[in-house]
Write a structure and sequence with these properties.
alpha+beta; 11 strands; 9 helices
Length: 275
């Protein structure tokens, strides 16, 4: 499923082979581990020092999430409106058991400053002394929600590296796939669009391989694996497709966001149309 997380996705032949392994149970454990441990290797198309150029692992990876959670918790525990990136880097490194900030940066494959500037729910600026400071946006109370529909057109593999914060209330659909959606699951998820799709591929494939057989008919299992194949194909972006977000809270965000269409809608309109 996720053979090459920077190069645009697996080939059709490798996907077909891996789907067969999942279906018939051949070498499935090594296949799952290969996908789970895949990293984003460098390529000339993504050279440079920015956040999207320097992502070294899935943002959903346990270590990356621990760093992000520590940043969020540190900000929540202080009354300050803005925190200095350099000072908090040292604190995060200490709290998570890294030897120093350099080791923390190595784990992230980027500097701490680059890391905090990459997330849509973290604001950054330079203060009067020229230091980078940041703040984490607070989650809005329900009475302040603004229902939104957001549309992002993915025209090339580069667009898949946009970072998307999916709120715990949002639904994401890909209209080009009639039988698939990211449903609300009560959890905020932040990752590149590539890795949101990659996680779905892994979870669906794992469900087919390990899920209770009595709950899934042959037809349903076949349908799930068809969706897995279609999602894999999207990772190569053979043609443009749409990332369509329905969010009653209005708290989903993209970074960068300049190509995203945002529409304020009535709450009842923040529901996707029936398939």
């Amino acid at each position: 499923m996720l053979r090459s997380l920077r190069g645009g996705g697996a080939t059709v032949s490798s996907i077909t082979q891996q789907m067969s392994e999942l279906w018939y149970g051949n070498s499935s454990s090594s296949f799952i581990e290969d996908n789970k441990n895949s990293s984003l290797s460098s390529s000339s198309a993504f050279s440079g020092g920015g956040f999207l150029d320097r992502i070294g692992v899935d943002l959903g990876h346990q270590e990356m999430q621990a760093i992000l959670n520590e940043i969020e918790q540190t900000f929540a525990s202080t009354p300050a409106e803005w925190l200095p990136a350099n000072g908090i880097a040292s604190l995060v490194a200490h709290n998570l058991g890294y030897e120093d900030v350099e080791e923390l940066n190595s784990a992230m494959n980027m500097t701490f400053s680059t890391f905090v500037q990459g997330f849509p729910h973290i604001d950054t600026k330079n203060d009067d002394e020229g230091r980078l400071v940041f703040r984490v946006k607070k989650e809005r109370p329900k009475e302040e929600w603004t229902a939104r529909k957001m549309v992002y057109k993915i025209n090339s593999t580069k667009d898949l590296w946009t970072v998307f914060l999916k709120s715990k209330n949002a639904i994401v659909r890909i209209p080009e796939l009639n039988d698939f959606e990211f449903s609300p699951d009560g959890v905020k998820r932040i990752d590149t669009i590539y890795n949101h799709i990659g996680t779905a591929i892994f979870n669906l494939g794992n469900h087919v391989r390990q899920g209770p057989g009595k709950l899934d008919s042959y037809e349903r299992r076949e349908k799930i694996m068809t969706v897995v194949y279609q999602l894999n194909t999207l990772l190569d972006v053979p043609r443009p497709f749409t990332w369509e977000v329905y969010d009653p809270s209005g708290t989903c965000e993209f970074k960068p966001s300049d190509a995203v269409e945002v529409h304020d809608v009535e709450p009842e309109e923040a529901e996707p149309p029936a398939h």
